[in-house]
Amino acid sequence: MNKSFLDYFLKIRVPVILFVALASLTLTYYVSRAERDGVGYAPEQPIPYSHKLHAGTMGIDCQYCHTGASVSRHAMVPPVNTCMNCHTVARKNKPNIIRLTQYYNEGKLMPWKRVHKVPDYAYFNHSVHVNKGIDCQTCHGDIQNMEVVQQTNSWTMNNCIDCHRTAPVKLANIKGIKKGPENCFACHR
Ligand code: HEC
Ligand code: HEC
Ligand code: HEC
Ligand code: HEC
Ligand code: HEC
User: Fold this and answer.
1) Residue 90 · residue 125 · CB < 8 Å
2) Ligand nearest to the backbone CA of 185
3) Cα–Cα distance, 145 to 53 (Å, whole number)
4) Does residue 11 or residue 158 have the better pLDDT?
5) Contact assessment for residue 183 and residue 118, using Cβ atoms and an 8 Å cutoff
6) Contact status, residue 110 vs residue 80, Cβ threshold 8 Å
7) Which candidate, 156, 160, 176, places its Cα nearest to that of 168?
8) Is the pLDDT assigned to residue 59 strictly greater than 90?
9) What angle do CA 118, 116, 165 make, to 5 degrees?
10) Which residues does 112 contact at the CB level (< 8 Å), separation at least 6?
11) Which mutation among 35, 128, 187, 189 tests ligand 4's pocket best, with the greatest number of atoms within 8 A of CB?
């Protein structure tokens, strides 16, 4: 290798390569961070399903669709079947409902993008919270006014513990509510 090439490689190429590597690392970090606990995260969904219309204007109960919320760890996003209880008839000639029907007929899952997520090493359980009488809105914001679901709270450890410590004050509207656990093994099991 001749010297001037080596010089060029070390002085120009290496810094450029390092810069690009660093920049893309930082970017991936922030993007995945946003998906994990970013307040304001509101991914575009495969079909523009509106909570404002269904849960707000039409007043459909949250748990008509999110059937797991009071019985299990996950609230669960409904399968297309649930939508078809109405959409075999309602607006069936609209382009988005035609697409919805295609998923249904082909027996495919709708690829909804996940909005809220705590890391796997932390344990969160919906039913414990919901059955104590804590509203969905306390944690998720006014979903019934959202055209597109947006994350309104950050699920850092501090946030969980802060509510656990202050629950009797913060949730004074719920009769007899106790503090939540603050010991490590409650959430890291
Ligand atoms: C008719 C069915 C239906 C009803 C009623 C409904 N939802 Fe949903 N919900 C969905 C679907 C479908 C998704 C996934 C697509 C999206 O995010 O918009 C979803 C997504 C969500 C998410 C985000 C899930 C994630 O990926 O983190 C939350 C939180 C949520 N709903 C809360 C509520 C609350 C609170 C109510 C009541 C005020 C409600 N939903 C009523 C169907 C419904
Ligand atoms: C309880 C009945 C009911 C259920 C369940 C329901 N919808 Fe709807 N949906 C309606 C009605 C009625 C309308 C039309 C409302 C209007 O425009 O006044 C509508 C409108 C829509 C529209 C707008 C259609 C357009 O272009 O005009 C979309 C998209 C949609 N629904 C998707 C869904 C999805 C996805 C699900 C399942 C997660 C679902 N709906 C569940 C009753 C329902
Ligand atoms: C104490 C706070 C809290 C309450 C109350 C709460 N949620 Fe959640 N929700 C969360 C957290 C935290 C996550 C992320 C959980 C995970 O990644 O396992 C989540 C995730 C979700 C999801 C997507 C993932 C899943 O678990 O299926 C849906 C849908 C959802 N919530 C709906 C609801 C509905 C509907 C209610 C009310 C009936 C509700 N939540 C009440 C904190 C809460
Ligand atoms: C009320 C639930 C809860 C309790 C109690 C709790 N944690 Fe966590 N912890 C979480 C959640 C949720 C996360 C993930 C969100 C985050 O990164 O903040 C987490 C993240 C962590 C992390 C990773 C931090 C990081 O920056 O990536 C460590 C380490 C940890 N917890 C240790 C502990 C220890 C030690 C205790 C006891 C003193 C404890 N936790 C008690 C909920 C809890
Ligand atoms: C809005 C307040 C609030 C928030 C936010 C909240 N919690 Fe809780 N949590 C409670 C209360 C209140 C209890 C205690 C209920 C009781 O036993 O009376 C509880 C109980 C628990 C328990 C014990 C349940 C069991 O199975 O024994 C765990 C674990 C837990 N929470 C995890 C979490 C994690 C992880 C987060 C954050 C991602 C979180 N919580 C966020 C209020 C909250």
Assistant:
1) no
2) 4
3) 8
4) 158
5) no
6) yes
7) 176
8) yes
9) 55
10) 45, 46, 77
11) 187
Higher pLDDT among residues 18 and 74, named by residue: 74
Task: From residue 138, give the alpha-carbon distance in Å to each of 82, 114, 165.
Answer: 25, 19, 16
User: What pLDDT score was predicted for residue 16?
Assistant: 61
In testing the pocket of ligand 1, which one of 50, 52, 66, 73 has its CB within 8 Å of the most ligand atoms?
66
Q: Is 162 within 8 Å of 95 (Cβ atoms)?
A: no
Ligand 3, atom 31, lies closest to the CA of: 75
Given a cut of 60, whether residue 13 has pLDDT beyond it is yes
Tokens of 108: 């495919």
The answer to whether 26 and 37 are in contact (CB under 8 A) is no
Ligand nearest to the CA of 183: 4
Residue 144 beta carbon below 6 angstroms from any ligand 1 atom: yes
> Is the shortest distance between the CB of 118 and ligand 3 below 6 Å?
yes
What are 83-138's pLDDT values in tens digits? 999 999 999 999 999 999 999 999 999 999 999 999 999 999 999 999 999 999 99
